[in-house]
Write a structure and sequence with these properties.
The protein has 125 residues and is of the alpha+beta class. It is 22% helix and 25% strand.
Amino acid sequence: MKVVINTCFGGFGLSDEAIAWLLNNKGWTLTHYTLEGELADPDADFVMNTEHKSILGIYSFGKWWRDETKLRCHPDVIACLKALGSRVNTRYSDLKVVVIPDDVEWTIEEYDGLEHIAEKHRTWD
C-alpha cells in the first residue's frame, strides 16, 4: 500500500499547482460557502475561501477532512505527486510516498507536522 506523508516540520498540504492538477486532470471538485455559511456542495473535494492567501484560495480538503487517511492513499494524489514531483509541496510541506505492507493496520503519527507511519497497537493512558 502507498501512503503520502509529510517529511518536514509544518504539516501535510498540497500546493495550488497540485490542487489545480487534481481539478483539471482527475475531475476533483471545488465548492464554496454560501451566504448562509453552508457548503454549496458538501461532497466536493476542496473548499474555496477568497480570504485565504493562496492563488486558488483553497481553505480545506472538503470531504477529505473527515477521513484524511483515504486522501493519503488515494491513487490520484499519488499520481499527482509522481507527475509534479516537488511542485506538490507547500512551503510547509515536503511530501513523500511511503510503501507499507497491505496487511498492516497503520496510522500516521506526527510531531509539529513531521510525520511517519506506525503500525497500530494498543495504548493506555
